[in-house]
């Protein structure tokens, strides 16, 4: 069937171009929600009253059609409370490639950490923990469904009015066959988040998402952007800065001072545990990184410290060594934690990414 004449394409509704042009007031710049590597997103209102986000891909060529199909196929096949919902698209034979999503009203995690919505103390530690868990849940679900996101970053983690997570932007995502260890593909993604092994060896695995998520965890701890050319040369990449601070026992220099790290022993305990987990995610050797389901399990264990501390009393201020091993859900004996513990002295850690 010709998609041009069908009301559905790859299982989603096909919108008339004119309706979307009308919905966005002819793609008025005042309706712009954001701009990425592949297109601009506009806020719009459909004729049925639904408020939507309309992604307008930059040019209609073979590569863009592939990304267009990719996003539609993934979002129609996979449904999860922390993945953005796709309402439909225009025909791939139409004059422009447009994707229509549910409108998420509260910007991105990046906006709240170090962007236009950021203000000191506005994003509490408990909210940041929830964001990390919901994002990890979405990524673990993708990996269990044989999909690698490939562009995990705080700009692709949307927040609704209740600060619930919606992971977005699947244009780069790849289906991952279960019978292979990696897919060879030219590195794509965002500087500051790209797995160094993927960057150097062109080998994409689910652990590439784990590395990127490690950077997200450090952003949640520090409120700093993943890349900042105004920082010291060796700290332009946040991943390098974090590894250096953690290895030199200077975590307090990395943590956002508004989170209560110095005044609340429980917060200090939890942040230190998340930093340890991030450190494991950022290992240069992908075999030393945990899987996304293991990361999720560890984060749930860290969150449970809050409940445990309430039940048994406050933790000792000095109780911040080996946190991940002592306080979170235990992983399998041959997991990353035991590998990391035995190999940390000889491991080469994450290096600067071009």
Description of the molecule:
With 354 residues, this protein is of the alpha+beta class. The protein has two domains: 3-102, Phosphorylase Kinase, domain 1, CATH 3.30.200.20; 109-343, Transferase(Phosphotransferase), domain 1 (Orthogonal Bundle), CATH 1.10.510.10. The chain has eleven helices and 13 strands. The strands form four sheets. Strands 1-2-6-7-5-4-3 form a seven-stranded mixed sheet, sandwiched between helices. β6 and β7 form a beta hairpin. It is globular. Residues 1-5 and 318-354 have low confidence and may be disordered. It is an enzyme of class 2 (transferase). It is found in: Cell membrane. Residues 27-300 form the Protein kinase domain.
